[in-house]
């Protein structure tokens, strides 16, 4: 037996007992007569003492232990004289009688400490060492507990976890698929699922009533920071439900996991129309920890001789409370920030509401005190506040100012730590018109139902009608992060066909790609609706962290590579020939 | 709201209440004045009554409902006059006041009944209809419950469920990988994991101590009946453990799920040496529900003038209790069965132990009564028993007779229904010599450790020594099905290198493919061991069924195709070009 106890469980009550522990040498400290070793495992750290007077040979060997050596120690538990109250095992230590080195360790390329000296690349390459560090270990353990909690909750509500296939069919709708060549079916490919969408709908047609799955999904996208080609969803679907049932069920789930894992009681989630979210926050995922709603200034800012505003569709402001004291340099910084190509604003107007009741703005030439007072009135600004104003096209300006709002809040520490502000964003548009490709895209996905009262308009309306259709689609947002989204689904063949037609499918294409689903709708499909939560994102948001990568044991880097195992990699010619494939890499001759 | 109750929950206590139900029309029965509809959902069936006298229009509409129509009914619960004790809701019925057709249904291509008239292909094509049938639904629900039970048990034992990546690196060892071309890394491929083996070992190196995952794995094999290209494992690994710890933990898990899901208490699992399993049952997965152990007859059957036996390495028999009365035709049937190419025996000798104490054999010409009596003595045969004897090469003959043993047991109903006989098979050989390729293969996998006392022999021994090395490898077998297997792992770089060398890897190949793992062994790798259960197989064995396909919601057929969604399929040229690939299909010009 390698151990009688783990390194986190011995207490004062165990004093006098003979024990065996195994673990990693966190650190050794040599005080001449006494050598102390902190022995670490997943469960904690226990102090081991080697006494030179007791056993010189043993103490000698202990002194030679390096960091991260794996050892087994036998000894007796005794009370510590200098207790460590910060450690669960801090009241005791083990006076060692035997020591066995189970495995040596080279000096790690970075320190295994909460604050490590290792850079990103190095830690990714030695991920198994990085994973030893407390912050990462806590994240991975949290993730495991969250999954268990989600499963227990949904299992208790009659949800069945049903596995859907990973080797499915490629469809051009949505993001790019990863494909898998089939050896047994020459020239043909499977695709890895971007989500189990069609399968969970078929499970509803099959009568399973309540389905969920914590499941890997795949998207071959150009990677941005904090996006992963494989990611995990809590994927759910319910039959014989309306939107309200789904919202209540998953609000319940969210409250449950916050209570169970974080000890936080969330109140009822507010709801917001999509249109209001865009209007007030310039975003479909408003961070409600931050105030500073967008205020339209058109009627007080236009036709006053300032050409930039006069030519704009929208003049829009946020009030930054108590920030009238920003320096010229800080304000220039904000201006430069919004002018970066990622944001794309042409400029930024500011108004300082001075303590003495006067105003100082970057457009004093065009707007006198009286006029600026009207801006202040409109935005509710008081002495000491700062107004930031952007103008231009309506939607773009709102988005730019919405981004600035978040940037300012972060930059000036205006986001209260440890608070969680959930929000349902509702009534998304069904379709999105894309001017470039001159076609509609599905705002959520092609299986989303228009609101019941919109069905008639959808089946009979003209082009402009389609732009204004609202869907029974909803997103859960927490602290400005999209946790998940879902919709009521179409379950009628004719309506589904109409939607595919609007999305630019020919009837043949629709049949070829989704004929199995539309066929299923003809054999008794119940009304159904569902939702999917981003599991990685939920983990990070619940812990107030921004990177999902720190909650994934073995993530890919921004180039989609696993630098630890060095994947992807070339495969040999035999494998390619078996798959009836050839490389068509530039410069290659195959 | 679509329903106040589901179709399985109303009881006599609900009589008088107004309710709303939704579900599928299982069947309608028209008795003129009264029309009865059995309304079905996942939870059960409730009888709905439409009364012509009450509401003629409603009854009229009810008469027109077809099978599998999706309807919503409002009405009042009342006590039934003719109760149905076979149904949980059998004491009540709903007298309908409103009826709404939520969706029509075409006549299904096969009946949605326990015994359907649909053939395999048709049911696979309309899987969403097949999944409505009780037998399949029970299987899928069982699977969901089993997963929940496994997770709760392991979660309660400090196991963490940790997701490992699906997009990894192809390795030539083992079965064929499915590969996934990388668009962002031109000419390179990911592979889908055949198991999370190396990642779970890295998690042990990373200190996670106890890992599990219920996870999809992938093997691109030539498909046989009841094999799936994607399948599910309960994958586990533990650090600071010996073989005994793993066996105890997973014996505990197995007992737990049998108790919780089947109400069956399993006693302690017997253990058998691999060598004994082969010797006594001609199989490394003996079905202990069947007796009929193999008995060697060399000393009583050879050198008696029967050339076939005399030239054989082994003469081996089973005693079939009480089957001396098989007819000549039945015995010929058995002979033909073992001579099929799948079994490959040259012939079959039988001895009937007649009720009167005499013997009748197919080799009476060579063996008189006295000699046959010795066979009977050796095998413990009594009057009424039948001996079946095969001869030839040792291992082949045992395998053939082992197969015959199972065939006879099935054919003559000698397997007790509803019994479960678990068994640990232990001490597998480490390496298997392959005469064709003139190299060793790993019996379990290349990460398996030889038994501790064998390490020295492995590091220093000659070729023949290697053939005889035993590993700390074990399989769990239930009723003759391999539920899972595992091993103690190598955690020392030098030993791992030696194993790769024995398996025919050059040092460069070993480094290229598994350098990350061997590197990890140098940074403090703890002793560790693990196991993986086939989850699909566990489901089927626990339910006394032979097909794993019936426990998978959307399985592939024997050609690896999903005939419902029609996958795999061709992808368009643009997709191929993006992946820097070209088809090399015969006859194609690309």
TrEMBL record, chains A, B:
It catalyses: tRNA(Asp) + L-aspartate + ATP = L-aspartyl-tRNA(Asp) + AMP + diphosphate. Residues 150-555 form the Aminoacyl-transfer RNA synthetases class-II family profile domain. L-aspartate binds at residues 173, 219, 444, 489. It is found in: Cytoplasm. ATP binds at residues 219-221, 228, 482, 534-537. The keyword Transmembrane does not apply. The keyword Protein biosynthesis applies. It comes from the Bacteria. Pfam families: GAD (PF02938), tRNA-synt_2 (PF00152), tRNA_anti-codon (PF01336). Keywords: Aminoacyl-tRNA synthetase, ATP-binding, Cytoplasm, Ligase, Nucleotide-binding, Protein biosynthesis. Residues 197-200 are annotated as: Aspartate. SUPFAM superfamilies: Class II aaRS and biotin synthetases, GAD domain-like, Nucleic acid-binding proteins. Its EC number is 6.1.1.12. Catalyzes the attachment of L-aspartate to tRNA(Asp) in a two-step reaction: L-aspartate is first activated by ATP to form Asp-AMP and then transferred to the acceptor end of tRNA(Asp). Homodimer. HAMAP family: Asp_tRNA_synth_type1. Belongs to the class-II aminoacyl-tRNA synthetase family. Type 1 subfamily. This is Aspartate--tRNA ligase. It comes from Neolewinella antarctica. The lineage of its organism: Bacteria, Pseudomonadati, Bacteroidota, Saprospiria, Saprospirales.
């Amino acid at each position: 037996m390698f151990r009688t106890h783990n390194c986190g469980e011995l207490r004062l009550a165990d004093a006098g007992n003979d024990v065996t522990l195994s673990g990693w040498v966190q650190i050794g400290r040599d005080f001449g007569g006494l050598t102390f070793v902190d022995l670490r495992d997943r469960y904690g750290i226990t102090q081991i003492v080697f006494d030179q007077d007791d056993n010189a040979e043993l103490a000698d060997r202990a002194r030679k232990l390096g960091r991260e050596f794996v050892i087994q120690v036998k000894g007796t538990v005794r009370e510590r004289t200098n207790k460590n109250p910060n450690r669960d095992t801090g009241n005791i230590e083990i006076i060692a009688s035997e020591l066995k080195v189970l495995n040596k360790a080279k000096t790690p390329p970075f320190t295994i400490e909460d604050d490590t000296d290792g850079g990103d690349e190095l830690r990714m390459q030695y991920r198994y060492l990085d994973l030893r560090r407390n912050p990462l270990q806590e994240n991975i353990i949290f993730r495991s507990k969250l999954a268990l909690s989600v499963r227990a909750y949904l299992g208790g509500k009659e949800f069945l976890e049903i596995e859907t296939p990973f080797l499915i069919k490629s469809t051009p709708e949505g993001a790019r698929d990863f494909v898998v060549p089939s050896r047994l079916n020459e020239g043909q490919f499977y695709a890895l699922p971007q989500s189990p969408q069609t399968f969970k709908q078929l499970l509803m047609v099959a009568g399973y009533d309540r389905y969920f799955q914590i499941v890997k999904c795949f998207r071959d996208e150009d990677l941005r920071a904090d996006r992963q080609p494989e990611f995990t969803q809590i994927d759910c679907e319910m039959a014989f439900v309306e939107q309200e049932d789904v919202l209540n069920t998953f609000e319940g789930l969210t409250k449950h996991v916050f209570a169970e894992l974080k000890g936080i009681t969330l109140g009822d989630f507010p709801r917001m129309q999509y249109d209001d979210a865009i209007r007030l926050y310039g975003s479909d995922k408003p961070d409600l920890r931050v105030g500073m709603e967008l205020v339209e200034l058109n009627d007080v800012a236009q036709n006053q001789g300032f050409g930039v505003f006069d030519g704009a569709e929208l003049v829009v402001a946020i009030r930054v409370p108590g920030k009238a004291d920003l320096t010229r340099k800080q304000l220039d910084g904000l201006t430069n920030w919004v002018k970066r190509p990622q944001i794309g604003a042409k400029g930024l107007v500011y108004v300082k509401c001075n303590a003495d009741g006067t105003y100082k703005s970057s457009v004093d030439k065009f707007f006198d005190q009286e006029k600026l007072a009207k801006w202040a009135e409109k935005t509710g600004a008081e002495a000491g506040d700062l107004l930031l104003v952007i103008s231009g096209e309506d939607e773009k300006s709102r988005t730019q100012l919405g981004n600035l709002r978040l940037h300012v809040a972060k930059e000036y520490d205006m986001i209260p730590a440890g608070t969680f502000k959930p929000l349902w964003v509702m009534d998304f548009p069904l379709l999105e018109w894309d001017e470039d490709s001159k076609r509609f895209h599905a705002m959520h996905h092609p299986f989303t139902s228009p609101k019941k009262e919109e069905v008639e308009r959808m089946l009979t309306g003209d082009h402009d009608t389609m732009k204004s259709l609202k869907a029974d689609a909803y997103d859960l947002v927490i602290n400005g992060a999209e946790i998940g989204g879902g919709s009521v689904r179409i379950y009628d063949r004719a309506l589904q066909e109409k939607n595919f037609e609007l999305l630019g499918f020919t009837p043949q294409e629709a049949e070829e790609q989704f004929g199995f689903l539309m066929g299923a709708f003809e054999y008794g499909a119940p009304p159904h609706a569902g939702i999917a939560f981003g599991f990685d994102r939920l983990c990070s948001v619940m812990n107030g962290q921004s990177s999902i990568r720190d909650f994934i044991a073995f993530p890919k880097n921004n180039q989609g590579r696993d630098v630890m195992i060095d994947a992807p990699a070339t495969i040999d010619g035999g494998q390619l020939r078996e798959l009836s494939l050839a490389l068509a890499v530039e410069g290659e001759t195959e």
